Amino acid sequence: MYNIFDYLEWRGDLTFEQTGICDADAVILSRLSYLPFDGAVSEKFDTFTTVSQAADRVFSGGNPAFLWDGDDRLLSALAESGRYRDLKLCGYVNDVDDERQMQFSAMVIEIGNGLRFISFRGTDNTLVGWQEDFNMFFTFPVESQIEAQRYFERVTERFDGKFCLGGHSKGGNLAVYVSAFSSQAVQDRITAIYSMDGPGFELEHLEGSGFDRIAGKIRTYVPQSSIFGMLFEHEESYTVIKSNQKGFLQHDVYSWEIKRDSLVELSRRNGTSAFFDHTLTQFAAKMTPQERRGFTEAIFNIMKSTEEYTFDDMADKLVKDIPIMLKTFTKLDSETRSMIGARLLSFLKTAGGNITDINPLTKENRQIRREQRTDKSKK
After folding, report:
1. Residue of 85, 234, 252, 348 with fewest CB within 10 Å of its CB?
2. Could you report the per-residue pLDDT of 223-255, keeping only the tens digit for each?
3. b vs e for 67-93, b when ≥16 Cβ sit within 10 Å of the residue's Cβ?
4. Could you tell me if 225 and 243 are in contact, meaning their C-beta atoms sit under 8 angstroms apart?
5. What pLDDT digit, counting tens, does each position of 309-341 carry?
6. Who contacts 321 (Cβ-Cβ below 8 Å, separation ≥6)?
7. Nearest to residue 120, comparing CAs of 231, 222, 235, 199?
């Protein structure tokens, strides 16, 4: 069972001029925007920092705030890799805005020969970041999608040449979004779009976009138990890949298996992925957009009453925070309390009803669902 660290050992001495971007590179480049480059990489597009220089700055900064286990190892490995250490980084942004309910981060990576990889970060561990993800169930576009479009427009105005775009989780969704809603002239400059277990889109949201023009350039990968990546719909084809973890932990790119320079492919998703796909889709369908908004805002207002910034903070202070959240809940008006209870019960009933029906969705099933949504949107 090999992963991206093994790939770096096997091919880390080969430059991108010798071998172009492969699947394993796309995973790494998509993950790069998660690394804590605040103060290490400039937000300007005309000030460049190599990967090795950025690593030195991060590790010399005391106690860097890496988001996932493995991120520190990845940065060290990239700084020592002949393939990655001299890549130039610029345009790093990391903006978490509670008022706008937005979490957005991205950076530009110069690959060489006029090619640049735009890496969009997915959801971090902030409460705001997760709230924005839930906002996707009743708002389009969400704030990070709007900000991603503005960012990419600045990139295309500043640089000539070609672009690859990619991201993991919400970052993959952002990469597809900005590509679909860019002009045809910009789309012609895009060589590939990578979505690494990123959620899709409601069908009606893509109407009027240039999605059809770039659909063939999208490369979407989801692990066999994908949950996050199967939210909403993928109008493009997707590839199921193998993870050595289970359930939610398969979202971790460090668990994805590599063979030579490619992700290990499987024939289909498993029952766990189909179960959550069915359950979340049916649960959301039972509510109007206004009801989804009310439920989401109520839940996150309760969590925010703890005044914690991240889920890690909440986990560290759970004994203190649980009474605060319970007190906040009891102070809600009776209608809101009843709404929260009813929605949670609805979710449990929906999940229970799907336990005996967890066969993966076939291609035909997904086509039927698309046609049903299309008919619904025309009414």
Report:
1. 348
2. 998 877 777 777 778 899 999 998 888 899 999
3. bbebbbebbebbbebebbbebbbbbbb
4. yes
5. 777 777 788 888 899 999 998 989 999 889 888
6. 306, 308, 314
7. 199
